[in-house]
Amino acid sequence: MRLSIRKTCRAIGVLGLLTLFLTGCEMFKGRSEQYPKPSAANSTNSLALRPGDRVKVDFVGGGITIPPREEQVKEDGTINIEHIGAVEVVGKTARETEKLIQSKLVPDFYRSMTVTVTPLEQVYTVGGQVNRPGSQIYNGTTTVIKAIQSAGDFTDFANRRNIQITRSNGTIEFVDYEEATKRPSKNIEIFPHDSIIVDRRF
User: Fold this and answer.
1) Strand partners of residue 60
2) 61 Cβ contact partners less than 8 Å away, ≥ 6 residues apart
3) Which of 91, 129, 195, 197 could form a disulfide with 155 if both were Cys (CB 3.0 to 4.6 A apart)?
């Protein structure tokens, strides 16, 4: 009789632990669903267009001359193009924007047309212990070393060993400047909308 009671207690205990475990999993699942998933804007390429960016759009072909136009990406993520109106470009690279505009113009408005989109004044920022903190114009391939130099180099109080780089998608990386000068693989690339912070040395 006692053996039977012990077995029953053990079975109840196991069932209780299993119920507690499953309940915990459901609670954790419920909590995890409360956290926002990465938005499309946070998962886009670092070279993707953002509100405030300026672009130059050139049109070649179509049998007529169309003057190039400069457009600023509006807060709603669009630029205006003749004939087709608002075109949503936010989150797209210049190459993707070219294809999108061209697909809307050809063949509905022109038999043939080549569209070129050139980003203007895309920037990254360098702050903290540099001599000229602020926005820096992105002129093509840029590395950590070039970015620091573009901001007037370090101040005398800069911590060169722990430079923080916040990517446009929110990812944070840390770079040792001294290592970057010795090993090219550590001299990582900087893209538009990245933010570089040089802390003070204590």
Assistant:
1) 114
2) 110, 112, 113, 114
3) 129
Provide the CATH number for the domain formed by 123-200 in this structure: 3.10.560.10
Identity at 197, one-letter amino acid code: I
Write the CA distances from 13 to 8, 16, 17, 145, 147, integer angstroms.
Answer: 9, 5, 6, 62, 62
Q: Which CATH superfamily is domain 42-120 in?
A: wza like domain (3.30.1950.10)
**Tens of pLDDT, residues 109-136:** 888 989 999 988 888 999 999 999 999 9
- What global pTM score does this model have? 0.59
Distance of CA 40 to the CA centre of its chain: 10
**Following DSSP, what letter does each residue of 113-138 receive, concatenated?**
-EEEEEEES-EEEEEESBSS-EEEE-
